[in-house]
Amino acid sequence: RSRRRWWKVVRVLDEFEEAASTPVGRLRQVVDAMAVEMHAGLASEGGSKLKMLLTFVDNLPDGSENGIYYALHIGGTNFRLLRIQLGGQRSILSHDVERKPIPQHLMTSTSEELFDFIALSLKEFIERNGNNQARGKDLGFTFSFPVKQTSLSSGTLIKWTKGFSIEDMVEKDVVECLQKALSRRGVDMNVAALVNDSVGTLALGHFYDKDTVAAVVIGTGTNACYLERADAVIKCQGLLTTSGGMVINMEWGNFWSSHLPRTSYDIDLDAESQNPNDQGFEKMISGMYLGDIVRRVIHKMSLESDIFGPISSKLSARFVLSTPLMAAMHEDETPNLSEVAKILEETLNINDVPLKVRKLVVKICDVVTRRAARLAAAGIVGILKKIGRDGTAGITSGRVKSGKSGKMRRTAVAIEGGLYLSYRIFREYLNEAVAEILGEEIAPFVSLKVMEDGSGIGAAMLAASNSNVD
Ligand code: ADP
Q1: Residue 388's beta-bridge partner residues?
Q2: Taking every annotated instance into account, which residue ranges of this chain make up the domain Hexokinase N-terminal (predicted)?
């Protein structure tokens, strides 16, 4: 009997692995779909699930910036306060960061309560870090949710993602909310740049390396942006910028294509989420969701067999298994997988499982993470394809002109976010897949560069490079 139960579990795993598989051929279809959707999103408003938002950032920092700047960053889980001192010549003389978790209740409260908390935190941060230099200073504000910008320093919230839901904020001007809260708290600062986290990351990447053309964030949620030619933004005819370029915030978490390897677990996760039918790519890739996909697979297995013992009620609780815990199981290097056993016990109330079951759990984590990382990699190559940096531009009628890399230029992509930074296996799978999709001739021209805290530091830099504008 016991063999038969094990066989049932193996079948669940096999089916999952098959449905979630990402052979390079499928990844290339995702690459093409990404490039096509980017075109469609630039062609007309609502032309694609990719919003392809204008950021009004047309000049990226070049390293010449000077002075002390502050930035605020609201992401998904953490809230960050930063102070940087720039010394020109690509140097950051000092850089202080403070992280605070956003209290859960504020994520679903009112805009006033949320921004009051932020303004107060900034006030305290300034008092601890160079009080007298902050007065009247320009502030960079990283707000990692979809915003329709009307200028570099104004924009309205389109919708919430990542578990936030504050109804009264939707369609409100985000900078105005912050600016008002700052004056209520007596903080004399000017919000000079409102940026998405990926835009901040691009700014920092460009500060260090002018070949940086795109940025990706993979943390609680995921997003990407890149530098586009202004004349390619068809939906905004006659868009004039001093540089001839414009950073486009893709909001790629909402990307969708029939080529994405979707499983029954993804369908259930989406249906039970706060935003069904929304952020489909994000739900397969980002830190908020990966642990929960693993939980769903374990749950299914425990319904089919008793290898996990009696069915734990914890297994039906959404988000009990967080992605950092999933990563800890995946990266467990103890010979008996004792870390896996401990997490199963403490988090899911599953006790005394034999080694082969622990190995099975590691395998589930591997399937989920590998798919996520490889899809993110395909997304990145999709962006490169759109701007002709994937090495295929030199190909005419299927024939390669003087070698595929003949026209290829050095290209850098800035990456940040807790998932990429802290989950080693995820990072390795992603890097590997980018190289695999590009092929060995082109891959050496493309480098992925980690920009830790880039989203915040970059926002401060954009505040710096735009502080004289208005
Ligand atoms: P945010 O996206 O919330 O602004 P981060 O970029 O720091 O902030 O990302 C935090 C997210 O990264 C967490 O919600 C978690 O999903 C993921 N993460 C953080 N640390 C780890 C880890 N060690 N292993 C796997 N995932 C992690």
Answers
A1: none
A2: 13-205
User: Which amino acid is residue 225, in one-letter code?
Assistant: C
Q: Can you tell me whether residue 173 is helix, strand or coil? A: strand
Annotation marks residue 144 as catalytic: yes
CB-CB contact of 70 with 139 (8 Å): yes
The domain limits of the chain are 56-208+453-464
Pick from 208, 196, 230, 197: nearest CA to 447: 208
Residue carrying the six token digits 């578990």: 163
- pLDDT for position 402: 47
pTM of the model: 0.94
Q: Which of 17, 2, 4, 1 lies closest to 360, judged by CA? A: 17
| Model confidence at 393: pLDDT above 80 | no
Tell me if residue 197 is catalytic: yes
| CA–CA separation, 249 and 255 (whole Å) | 13
Q: Which atom of ligand 1 is nearest to the CA of 77?
A: 3
Residues 6+ apart with CB under 8 A from 257: 29, 30, 33, 34, 37
Q: Tell how far the Cα of 319 is from the centroid of ligand 1, in angstroms.
A: 14
Q: Is the pLDDT of residue 130 over 50?
A: yes
Q: How far is the CA of 369 from the centre of ligand 1 (A)?
A: 14
This model of the complex carries an ipTM of 0.99
Q: State in Å: Cα 243 to ligand 1 middle.
A: 35
Provide the 10 A C-beta neighbour count for residue 182: 22
The correct CATH number of 56-208+453-464 out of 3.40.462.20, 3.40.190.10, 3.30.420.40, 3.30.70.100 is 3.30.420.40
End-to-end CA, the chain: 75
Among residues 214, 240, 211, the alpha carbon closest in space to that of 228 is found at 214
DSSP-derived secondary structure for 97-113? EEEEEPPGGGGGS-HHH
